[in-house]
Write a structure and sequence with these properties.
With 258 residues, the protein is of the alpha/beta class. The protein has one domain (4-257): TIM Barrel, CATH 3.20.20. Helix content is 44%, strand content 15%. The chain has an eight-stranded parallel β-barrel with strand order 1-2-3-4-5-6-7-8, surrounded by five helices. α3 links the parallel β3 (63-66) and β4 (93-96). The protein is globular, with a radius of gyration of 17 Å. The protein binds 2-phosphoglycolic acid. Residues 9, 170, 175-176, 179, 208-211, 229-232 line the site of 2-phosphoglycolic acid.
Amino acid sequence: MSTLWVGTSWKMTKTLAEARTWAEGLRDHLAQTASTAVQPFVIPSFTATTAVAGVLGEDSPALLGVQNAHWEEAGAWTGEVSVPQAKDAGAQIVEIGHSERREHFGETVATTRLKVAAALRHGLTPLLCIGESAEVKEAGGSSEFILEQARGALAGLTDEELSRVVIAYEPIWAIGENGRPATVAELIEPFAALGAEYSGRITGLLYGGSVNLDNAAALLEIEHVTGLFVGRTAWQLEGYLELLQIAEAHAEAEQIGG
Ligand code: PGA
């Protein structure tokens, strides 16, 4: 079975001191219990990237990411950060196309495609987020909508390039304070659609949106799900470590069960 990717984006939270404390806790935890079945990752704000990289250290089993990056290498793009700059700061993952960026910052399928290509060009893992609104879901178009987002962002990639991509399916209606947790039943069909197209061809197919300690185990049971992308529950280190343990238990059970 594939490695389970379990990670968190901190969105626009945490001071440097808070970031360091969280990262120290993760580093100490992983020093005691490094599981090969689970790939941890953390995506802080840009301001905390180098601090977290420094705490985790170069040989950390946890991967480090950024929440966005521009597609150009450098230049007159005020307020933006390029993939080479993110890499220089220690990032190995670039999160691309989160619904908050699509809604508030003009991210489109076209820009996600440019950013996926830029990440791959520099050897970073693109973590492509896709997800439909409540309106699209109510109209019955979820699977078609998310497949279009994914196909648009990943168009033209070679099999080798595609194999380095991680996709996170995060329905907008399930994300954040205003979201409601998705039921397992609601996720079967979208993951079947994504799995039919991408299972075995990409690095990971994650679920995100109101993941918590009560639903994580059941979400990992869904066919084609190979990880979790988590906001609020993982912002406290204890919550994140518990999620890692849930994923490890799931991986162990799968190994025993075959
Ligand atoms: P949440 O955020 O876990 O706080 O709902 C998920 C996300 O936006 O990735």
